[in-house]
Write a structure and sequence with these properties.
Alpha-Beta Plaits, Uridine Diphospho-n-acetylenolpyruvylglucosamine Reductase, domain 3, single chain, alpha+beta
């Protein structure tokens, strides 16, 4: 595979894309060689698609010339999935940003991949609907990226991930073939489910050019709760109890004691000095049912470690409670700008075991670990605060990560809940995926992308030649 663009291919690209939508100068291509993982590789060119036919023509040309293509949204992913490891062409989809239709009667939205999550939420809200996936980066990340990673956010605990909130899509496979998958209806079992196969495949199988998404009516009312515990374990036990009762919260966020200390130091939030962990809980539904729902959650949250249970009564109080959670990421960036952030998942009932195991690993490897995340579905963001310029600390961090991944698998968990695999976890996935399953997945990749041009060296361990 020769990724250096020859003059013939450049001329052919210029026949497909306007001059303003092709970048060939190194200085212009440089920003498109990295994502939020901070990994970088310079692409040989960047093209900006504005329509479906351009994507198909590009992939057809790159198959003919044996040039790699890496699809990209806004580059907000954290696993290096959009880093062009072998150079080639970065296909930016940020200009395919039309909301084609909001159809409230059928509860669907039809969008292009470059629409941001927030743009879709705003357009849907005008009709009293929303799209459930809501990553923290909603104002910046694109729907195409949400689908590529199956990125969900806090509301997944009640409303599901992108895979549960999509009906169908139009895409171009790595072979340059158009596929139309799924249905326009919420029921349909004709054929294999290619829609949910493409969702979460990180741009290794096909490039999504249009998606039909399931919308959900906005709730009549919401309540926000802040629950403080004396220690991490009793908070983790409360999560399991809350998720075992009948009233499912729409968000159930977990923040450990180290994170609370950071929030207190870097914001105006008022939190107890001896707090070991905090839960942020949001419940929604009919106004008449919420008081009973809050009571159910309060009863489930009670244990020996419960220190306080606070319900916001006004919009200002709601904003103040969520401000404590939103203060965490800026605080972490100040304390450890080069932290290692993982997003492992375990069954909810095993969160206490995960937290205990992480505490032991932190002590063993002398690495400070800050835990927070979407506890309602067991998705914990594990942050290792390290100095990558310290060789000893970096080696300890690598050993700690290795043991953490083994712990997650022992607890019947998964190595990633919503950040994806990319290159960061690529070499660990064979701990979770069996050899026969891995072989089948590689075979599917080859069918979609027989020449291997589409986003190479991502998701699966690299095979020795």
């Amino acid at each position: 595979m020769n990724n250096k663009l020859n003059s013939t291919l450049i001329r052919e690209l210029q026949n497909v894309f306007p001059a303003k939508d092709i970048l060939l100068e190194e200085s212009e291509c440089w920003p498109y060689g990295y994502d939020n993982s901070r990994k970088h590789q310079l692409p040989d060119a960047v093209v900006f698609a504005t329509q479906h036919t351009q994507v198909q023509q590009l992939l057809t040309l790159c198959n003919q010339h044996k040039v790699h293509v890496v699809p990209r949204g806004r580059g907000s992913g954290t696993t290096g999935a959009t880093v062009p490891l072998r150079g080639g062409i970065v296909l930016s989809l940020e200009k395919m940003n039309r909301i084609i239709e909001i159809d409230p009667k059928n509860r669907v939205a039809i969008v292009e991949p470059g629409v941001t999550n927030q743009e879709l939420q705003n357009a849907s809200a005008e009709h009293r609907f929303f799209w459930p996936p809501d990553p923290t980066s909603a104002a910046f990340c694109t729907i195409g990226g949400n689908l590529a990673y199956n990125s969900a956010g806090p509301r997944a605990v009640k409303y599901g991930t992108p895979r549960e909130n999509i009906l169908g899509l139009t895409a171009i496979t790595g072979a340059g073939k158009e596929i139309v998958t799924g249905t326009a209806t919420t029921k349909g079992v004709v054929g294999l489910d290619l829609t949910r196969l493409v969702v979460g495949s990180e741009g290794t199988l096909a490039v999504i050019t249009q998606a039909t998404l399931k919308l959900t009516p906005l709730a009549e009312s919401k309540r926000v709760l802040q629950v403080i515990y004396a220690d991490i374990r009793t908070a983790a036990q409360a999560v399991s109890s809350i998720m075992a009762q009948a009233f499912t919260p729409c968000a159930l966020e977990f923040i450990d004691g180290n994170a609370i200390d950071m929030i207190r130091d870097y914001s105006q939030a008022k939190l107890p000095e001896n707090a070991g962990a905090m839960l942020m809980i949001e419940v929604d539904g009919p106004k008449s049912a919420l008081s009973e729902g809050v009571e159910h959650i309060h009863n489930a949250a009670k244990n020996d470690g419960l220190m306080s249970f606070t319900e916001a009564k006004t919009q200002e109080e709601i904003d103040n409670l969520w401000a404590t959670r939103k203060a965490l990421s800026p605080a972490l960036r100040k304390v450890a700008p080069k932290k290692i952030n993982e997003d492992v998942v375990v069954p909810v009932s095993r969160i206490p075991e995960l937290i205990d195991g992480l505490t032991l690993l932190s002590e063993k490897h002398q690495i400070q670990i800050v835990n927070f995340g979407h506890a309602g579905n067991g998705n914990i963001h594990v942050n290792l605060l390290t100095d990558p310029d310290d060789p000893t600390q970096q080696k300890n961090a690598e050993l700690c990560l290795d043991e953490m991944f083994s712990l997650v698998i022992q607890l019947n968990g998964s190595l990633s809940g919503e950040h994806g695999v990319g290159i960061e976890k690529r070499d660990f996935v064979d701990r979770e995926i069996t050899p026969n399953s891995m072989a089948l997945m590689r075979g599917i990749k080859e069918i979609f992308d027989p020449n291997g041009i589409l986003n190479p060296d991502k998701m699966f361990p690299i095979q020795s030649q």
